[in-house]
Design goal:
alpha/beta; Beta-Lactamase; Rossmann fold; seven-stranded mixed sheet; six-stranded antiparallel sheet; elongated
Length: 500
């Protein structure tokens, strides 16, 4: 067993003191306990419940100037896992979590264990080795998997869950559906708008997987009748990923849908979203307005939120104070003040907008207009010289206006500050299109700009049914087919599923 020198113990103790993670009394107790217990200082602090393992990891990473890695949600294939034999992994308290023909990445519980590092260096002497520090509990779980079976994934429900999530992220899936059936749990992932079968889980695995997902999102694991939703940010394979987890009761069993947002991919610009030059120019014009309200309409999964954020990116500058209200925050934007709705429900969208208005914003982004109060508050904010950007659940621009009217608003409330309504749907590129190699889908669009003349006309007639968009979905479809971007079958699929 590697023994820590007194100077090292003093150094690590000072770090814990400085960070206020341990008290002097606790450090003295650890040192006293070390005289009879052959354990490292940090490991003993966790054992005595003086310290959380997360905090130990943070200090070790700082002390040894080494990167940390979370193995909790990581999938390690069987071949990689066994690059270190079980005896070496256990004695070194280490696992290989990724490898290729030239290098290996090794997670260690104690990066100060010189003997362990020497042993691993000798094992991989012809390869480039990078060491990381990881939680001992997570390393031990993989060591147990190595011991239990040559195929640990098949016998470990939580490792199998990691593999499902890992594979879905690699495939750029937007959602994972866990759907209990009579004799198995069907798992499907939505990739490029289409659901694909991933696997069928044994029913005996489902209780542990379901409990793990609910615990991750801080949901009540004892309540299986009430729909619940939450989210968790995880670090997986170098990516920062936000998982939105929602439960629902299907017949007598609880199913779960996990929505995936890869935050590490960054916020795309409007140019990167696949819009036509005409669409891009129209949206750029919207970004020049200093006041008014602009809506992006569409169903779930239509890409409207991504477009809204990209438009915000076009507006962002040091001269503009931008604030957002979201449920939850989808993209972290440097320099933008972002407010998240509280999970206890004490802050509504309307309350949030009123709070934001006290902070002297120039631009306000509202995640979604869901009710009359939020709609009216957003419109009032736009009438006070602010630019308000928001999404609304509607099929097209005209339907967006009708949705606002269904919130008991009047046309005279809506139109004075309304700049325009933009609607979109995502369709897959055909395989022959060069763009299909770069990205999987592109937007079909329909949008309407409300000129002063148009507003006067609508107010005089009170009729929105005759509104003619600047560009319609029909025009967008014709253009996409003419340019060979997609196929008639793909368009038919979208229309058949009532996406347009």
């Amino acid at each position: 067993m590697y023994t820590q020198h007194s100077s090292f113990v003093q150094n690590i103790g000072n770090i814990f003191l400085k960070k206020r993670l341990l008290t002097e009394k606790q450090i003295d107790a650890i040192l006293e306990y070390q005289k009879t217990k052959n354990m490292l200082f940090g490991r003993l602090a966790v054992f005595l419940k003086f310290l959380q393992e997360d905090h130990l990891l943070e200090v070790l990473a700082e002390l040894y100037t080494i990167d940390s890695v979370s193995l909790e949600f990581l999938y390690i294939d069987d071949q990689t896992l066994h690059l270190l034999d079980h005896e070496t992994a256990l004695s070194c308290m280490a696992v290989v979590f990724s490898a290729d023909s030239e290098s290996v990445n090794v997670a260690l519980a104690d990066p100060g264990d010189v003997k362990a590092i020497d042993k691993i260096n000798a094992r991989f002497k012809n390869l480039q080795i990078k060491f990381f520090v990881a939680k001992e509990s997570e390393i031990l779980r993989f060591i147990e998997i190595m011991k239990s079976s040559s195929d640990g994934v098949a016998k470990d429900p939580l490792l199998l869950l990691n593999k499902i999530i890992f594979d879905a992220i690699e495939a750029e899936a937007s959602d994972i559906h866990f759907e209990p059936q009579e004799s198995y749990v069907r798992v499907r992932a939505r990739v490029d708008g289409l659901l694909r079968l991933v696997t069928r889980l044994s029913p005996e695995f489902w209780p542990r997987i379901k409990a793990k997902l609910k615990l991750m999102a801080k949901l009540d694991i004892t309540d299986r009748y009430r729909p619940q939703s939450g989210h968790v940010k995880i670090s997986l394979g170098g990516k920062s990923v936000d998982l939105r987890i929602s439960t629902h009761l299907d017949k007598s069993e609880e199913g779960i849908v996990v929505r995936i947002l890869d935050a590490s991919s960054g916020l795309k610009s409007l140019k990167e979203l696949g819009f036509t030059p005409e669409d891009f120019a129209w949206l750029k014009k919207i970004s020049t307005f200093s006041s008014g309200i602009f809506l992006i309409a569409g169903p779930t999964g239509s890409g409207k939120t991504t477009t809204l954020y990209s438009l915000l990116k076009e507006i962002d500058s040091p001269q503009v104070n931008i604030m957002t209200l979201e449920d939850p925050i989808e993209y972290q934007i440097e320099g933008v003040k972002q407010m998240e709705l509280r999970e206890d429900g004490l802050l509504s969208f309307a309350d949030g907008v009123r709070s934001i208005l006290r902070q002297d914003p120039d631009v306000i982004l509202i995640g979604e207009i869901r009710d009359e109060e939020t709609a009216m508050t957003a419109i009032r904010a736009s009438l006070t010289g602010r630019l308000v950007l928001a999404t609304i659940h509607a099929t097209n621009p005209t339907d967006g206006i009708r949705r606002l009217l269904n919130f008991n608003l009047k046309l005279s409330d809506i139109l004075p500050s309304l700049i325009g309504v933009f609607s979109q749907r995502l369709v897959r590129y055909c395989n022959n299109s060069p763009e299909s190699k770069v990205r999987g889908r592109f937007p079909l669009t329909e949008y309407l700009y409300f000129s002063e003349e148009e507003k006067k006309k609508i107010l005089s007639t009170g009729d929105v049914s005759e509104l003619k968009p600047d560009k319609s979905f029909a025009m967008s479809i014709e253009e996409a087919l003419r340019n060979g971007l997609t196929t008639a079958n793909e368009i038919e699929r979208i229309i058949k599923n009532a996406y347009i």
